[in-house]
Specification:
By secondary structure, the chain is of the alpha+beta class. It is built from 6 helices and 9 strands, in the order βαααβββββαααβββ. Strands 4-5-1-9 form a 4-stranded mixed sheet, covered by helices on one side. The protein is globular and about 50 Å long.
Length: 286
């Protein structure tokens, strides 16, 4: 059973107000800061064509396997933006970064060069969300589109712990969908932080269900659990998100990344990557 102590005031990050101002440049990352970025994936095909050359051969092959072009473009944008931001933080050309995945899919930096940078990403609908911190403390982030879930109680019976199910049932019916999604993002953010993702058992991680994002106490004998924290985020209207981290004294800063800030200079000709999906009379991949 995963268990957590209730957060003390000192264990919570110092969050700024929920504003995501646009920023075209990436500021220096201080040791006590977590930088959050959101980006809209609703973009013309030219944007994904521009970012495609930043991806590795494995990422381009993965993109090629998407059946629907909109999913392919969103994958290219999500990974291209990640590489753009990582490259700015590390001072490395984005296409030269070596990214790998853990056993359960959590991405990390591999190969030579500076790797003391923690990061995580999530995407849902038309938005992507990214978190970065220096050092070795883990981060996890999750994002969901806020939407009606008529099956929220059935899903809770399958994935939630007993106290979470009780708390969800106690809410007015009009509030249950959003409360379920908030709790889901809190759980998944933590599981992504520890590297298990959804391979971990969701009902063995208990969080608060309702406005305050807390990792609830399950077993007072669990050592070190009190230093984990959760922070709810609203990166865009109609979305809910959560950030999970470990340790005290973090300061959060958040921005929206305009896609025009991703202009590659000099431009790389995407025709050098002539993938297509077999359709006739359509522009080249993507």
């Amino acid at each position: 059973m995963i268990c957590f102590g209730r957060q003390s005031r000192s264990a919570r990050p110092i969050a700024l107000e929920q504003q995501w101002p646009p920023a075209a440049t990436v500021p220096a990352l201080q040791p006590d800061q977590i930088h959050l970025w959101c980006a809209c994936l609703q973009a013309p095909a030219a944007a994904s064509q521009q970012l495609l050359p930043l991806l590795s051969a494995a990422e381009r092959e993965r993109a090629r396997r998407f059946r629907f072009r909109r999913h392919r473009r969103r994958f290219i944008l999500t990974r291209g933006i990640l590489r753009h931001l990582l490259g700015r933080y590390l001072g490395i050309a984005p296409q030269h970064l070596q990214l790998a995945q853990g056993r359960n899919g959590k991405p990390y930096l591999s190969g030579a060069g500076p790797t003391e940078l923690q990061f995580n990403l999530a995407h849902a609908g038309q938005w992507a969300l990214y978190a970065f911190a220096s050092g070795s403390q883990p981060l996890g982030i999750d994002l969901e589109r806020d939407r009606p879930l008529p099956q929220a109680e059935q899903l809770a019976r399958r994935f939630f712990a007993p106290r979470e199910r009780d708390a969800l049932r106690a809410l007015p019916a009009s509030e249950r969908s959003r409360a379920f999604l908030q709790a889901w993002t809190r759980k998944e953010a933590y599981l992504k932080a520890i590297g298990t993702g959804l391979a971990g058992s969701l009902d063995r991680v208990e969080v608060s269900v309702g406005p305050a994002g807390l990792l609830q106490q399950r077993d007072s004998g669990c050592s070190g659990a009190a230093r984990w924290w959760l922070c709810d985020l609203v990166p865009a209207p109609g979305y809910v998100a959560a950030l999970a981290g470990w340790g005290d004294g973090w300061r959060l800063q958040q921005w929206q990344l305009p896609l025009q800030a991703l202009r590659i200079e000099p431009p790389i000709d995407a025709r050098h990557y002539p993938y297509n999906d077999g359709r006739q009379n359509e522009p080249p991949f993507p």
